[in-house]
Amino acid sequence: MSPMTDRSPAEPVRRSFRPDPWSAAAVLIAALVLLPVVAVIWLAFNPVDNIWPHMMSTTLPRYLTNTGLLMAGVGVLTAAVGTGAAWLVTMYRFPGARVLDIALLLPLAVPAYIGAYALVDLFEFAGPVQTMLRGWMGWVTPRDYWFPPVRSRGAAVLVLSSAYYPYVYLLARAAFREQSGNAYEVARALGAGPWGMFLRIGLPLARPAIAAGVALACMETVNDFGAVSYFGVQTLTTGIFSVWLTAGNAGGAAQLSLVSLAVILALMGIERAGRRNLRFHRAARQSRPIQPRRLRGWRGWLAALLCALPFAAGFVLPVSVILYHALTKPDYWLTAGLARALWHTLATGGLAAVLCVSAALVVVYGTRLSRRRLPQLLLPLTGIGYAAPGAVLAVGLLIPMAALDHRVADALLWLTGHDPGLILTGSAALIVLAYVVRFFAIAQGAADSAMDRIAPSLPLAARSLGRTSGGVLRAIHLPLMRGSVGVALLVVFVDCVKELPATLLLRPFNYDTLATRVHERASVEALAEAAPAALLVMGVSLIAVALLARSTRAEGGPH
Fold first, then answer.
1. If we measure between CA atoms, which residue out of 97, 112, 109 comes closest to residue 173?
2. Of 238, 245, 217, whose CA–CA distance to 501 is shortest?
3. For 96-129, what is the HEC assignment?
4. How would you write the pLDDT of the chain (559 residues) with one tens digit per residue?
5. Of the four, 48, 133, 360, 467, which is 20 to 30 A from 157 by CA?
C-alpha cells in the first residue's frame, strides 16, 4: 500500500459509504477485465446443448495430448536455447557477441504463424529445398527419398520455439547480469570450470527468471492458432474454433475454453509451487559486476554459431522467405484491401493501447489511494486476461455482448422506431475490448512498477499544497512515468497488431486486419499475396523490439 494511505495498527477502521470515484472506477475496470473469464465459466456450466460427454470420448483426449506435447517440447527447447544463449552473451566475449546480444531478441517481431508459413514454403515438396535435392540426386517422386514431414507436430514445436525463446533469453540475460561477479571468481579459484559455474551458481540463481520465461512461452503456445492450424495439429485452441464455428455449439466452445484456461492456471500454479520454499536474492550493490571472459579460437566461433542458429531460425529464415515473395511480386502491394487492413490494424491497435494503458493507470492509482479491500482484491486477478488465450476471451466476450447488443437494439427500436443494428458485435468495438482485456496485465505491470519508483514524499507534498488526487496524478506521476507509459503503449500496440485468434473470432463481416489478411491468404497457399501484409506486421513489431533492446541494454550496462 502507498504511504499516502498507511495507518497505525491501533487506528480504528472508519467505514465510509461516501462515493469514492477512484475506487469505483478501479472496481468497474477490473470487473470489465474479468467479465470474459466469468462468462466462460458460466457458459461452460450452463450449455444449451451439452456435448461434453461426446468430446471426452472423442476429440478432447487428442486436443489435450497435442497441447501437452507442444507445451512440453516448446518449454524444453525455449529453456535450453534461451538460457544457453543468455549465458554465452553474458559470460563470454566471442566474434559477433555484441551484435548477437541484440539480434537474439529480433524473433519477437515475427509472429509464429508467419514463421510457419515461411518454413512450409521453403521445405515442402514443391519448395526450393526439396526441388534442389531432387535435381542434384535425380529423384522424381517422394518414394525415391525420405524427407522429414513439414506439416507435423515436430515442425510446430520448432517454429513455436524459434518464435518464443526470446522470452526466456530476455529474462535469463537480465538475471545473469544482476548476479555478483564475486561468486564466480571464488568458484573459479576453487577449481570450478565453466559447466560447474553454470550448473552450481548461474542456473540456480536465474531459475525464477527462466521459469517465468518458459511459462510465458507455454502460454503463447496454448494461445497459438495460426501456426498449429497450418501444420494440421489439433489443439485446444483449434478445437474451440472447430466446435464454435463448424459445429455451431457455443456451450461446447466454452467448455473447451475452460479446459484451456485450467491448463494455463495449472501451469502457473506449478511454476509458483516449485519455487515456494526457495529463496533467491539479488547481489548487493557493492558487489562487482560479472567480467566476461574472451573465448578464442574454435571455442569463440562455436559460441557464435550456437547463438546465431536460433536467430537464423526465428528471424532470418521467415523474413528472407517473406521478403523474397514481396520483391518478386511487387504488384501485390497494390492489391485491393491492403491499405484498408493497415488502417484497421493501426486504428484498433492504437485505440486499444491508449484505452488499455489509461485504464491500467486508473486501476493502479485508484487501488493505491483506496482504503477499501475490494479494489485491492481485484487488482491481482486482472492479470488473468493475459494468461487466457485469445480464443477463450473471444468466447467470453462475444456471446454475452451479442445478447446485450440484441436487447439494446430491440429497446431502441421500440423507443424510436429505428433499428440501430448491432453496435458492439457489428463493429470493431469488440475487437478493441478484447485487446484491452488480453493485454491489460502488461499495462498494469508497467504502471505498478513505475509508481513504485516514485518517492512517496512527492505526491504527499503536492497534496499538502492543495492538489486533488487527479491533480497529483497529472502533475507528479504522469511526468515521472512518461518513459514506462510510452513503452507500455508500444508493447501493447505491437501485441495487438500480432494477435490473431481473438481477431478472427470477433471481427465483423468483411473486416480485415493485417494479421487476418496474412492468415487468410497463406492458409490457401497464396503466400506471395500475404507477403506485403506480413512484412508490415513484422516492420511495426521491429520498431518495438528495437526500443525494447535499447532500454534493456541501457539497464544492463555496457555489455
1. 97
2. 238
3. CHHHHHHHCCHHHHCCHHHHHHHHHHHHCCCCHH
4. 344 444 444 444 444 445 578 788 888 888 888 888 888 889 888 888 888 888 888 899 999 999 999 999 999 999 999 999 998 998 889 999 999 998 998 998 899 999 999 999 999 988 899 999 988 988 888 888 889 989 999 999 999 999 999 989 988 888 888 776 666 666 666 666 677 777 777 788 788 888 888 988 998 899 899 999 999 999 999 999 888 888 788 888 888 988 888 888 787 776 666 555 444 444 445 556 677 888 888 989 999 999 999 999 999 999 999 999 999 888 888 888 899 999 999 999 999 999 999 998 888 888 888 767 777 788 777 777 777 788 888 888 888 888 888 888 888 878 887 877 777 777 888 999 999 998 988 888 888 877 877 777 777 777 777 777 777 787 777 788 877 788 788 888 988 998 999 998 888 888 999 999 999 988 888 888 999 999 999 988 887 777 766 665 555 443 3
5. 133
Among candidates 33, 53, 65, 133, which has minimal Cα distance to 439? Answer: 33
| R_g of the chain computed on alpha carbons | 25
CA–CA dist 218, 111 (Å, integer): 15
Q: Find the DSSP H helices in 236-284.
A: 236-241, 250-274
SS3 string, 404-457, reads HHHHHHHHHHHHHCCCCCCCCCCCCHHHHHHHHHHCHHHHHHHHHHHHHCCCCH
Q: 543-548: list long-range contacts, CB under 8 Å, 24+ apart.
A: 543/490, 543/494, 544/109, 544/490, 544/491, 544/493, 544/494, 545/105, 545/106, 545/108, 545/109, 547/487, 547/490, 548/105, 548/108, 548/487, 548/491
Nearest one of 22, 34, 14 to 436, comparing CA atoms: 34
Rounded Cα gap, residues 121 and 118, in angstroms: 5
Can you tell me the distance from the alpha carbon of 28 to that of 26, in angstroms, rounded to the nearest whole number?
6
| DSSP assignment string, 502-527 | HHHHHPPTT---HHHHHHHHHHTT-H
